[in-house]
Sequence to fold (373 residues):
Amino acid sequence: MRHSTTISEVVREAKRAPKVERYATFFQEFRGTRLAFMACEPQIDVGILHADMLSGLAEIGALGVAEGVGACMHLYMLFALATIPLPDAHLDERRKRLLLQIAERRLLVANTGSDAVRRSDNSEQTSTALVDLKDGTYSASGAKTFLSLATVADLVLFTAGPPDARLCFCLAPLRDSGVVIGSSEFDSSLNMNTHGLEFKDVIIPEEMVFAPSGNEGGALFHGYQRAVFQATISAVYLGAAFEALKEAGSFAQSARIDTVDGVRAELGSLVMKHDGALAISRACREPLYTFTAQPTPATLAALTDTAMVAKHFGCQVAAAIVTSVQRFIGTRSMRPEHPLVEMSRMVAFGPLHPVVAAQAVRHFAQRVCPKAD
Fold:
């Protein structure tokens, strides 16, 4: 593996690969970038890390949404794991050792995007996986619906409910014999690399288990990693949208309509929408600083609100831009070889990431129209 220094180099390398090999090539080279393991650096500044993630993910999104979403899954999980304040000194030392190992071995971390299910004798399902602790050994059983980076990652991070009911976070090797990766959840032509996952009595080393003290500690960890995801994911889709805008500009020049005032106004308006949506994601920087300095339910709520708005508008704006560009270019954008064909299918995933619009708008309705619990 060649150790690249920038995301731009990795993107160029992936573009040179045959399309069917692009995803694997990208992640092979991605391991060699600083960004991939920047979160593992001691005393990393969360604001700088977040800004670099947004820039990098936008570049990757321009290459392909599938690659961008996969990179985001790895980056945001490492971000959350590395920067969540842990008052427990023992857990903090465990985390430092783990992050050092991940960085030194250049390990990619997948995550599961849904609650796991607990197996029981009568086959009923509950909301979390079961992690048993017997004779000092942890074992996990259960299933997850969505696993991103399934075929290229080395570790999977998942939430689970141990017998004492505290929410905990576990890391398991994806190549463990007890980890069963299911079939692709989506059309294989989308290359999303998202699969179902099942744990069959997987032994989890104690060093790979993080159970913050008390229910509040687990809830903060869970809420924080979700907020970090929402604060970053729209950059992928906005990167794809800006690539679509460049296609529109090239079309305008080739059609010799680039000097027409109405054309310039239309394209300029779309660029402004892109920049405005990206600015909302950048606005997550301050609440990230605030939460990591003082991790409380109140500071998490403030971060979550900003991140939710960033994800909501960023992903919706990206999809709207691609649709507008298709209308601008016309029927030639529907030709199978045109990049907008794949792009239009992929940007549709953006608004479907959690938190979905139906949940987000009802959450914000509480401010002006409180609903009793």
Summary: Residues 5 and 33 are 5 Å apart (CA to CA).
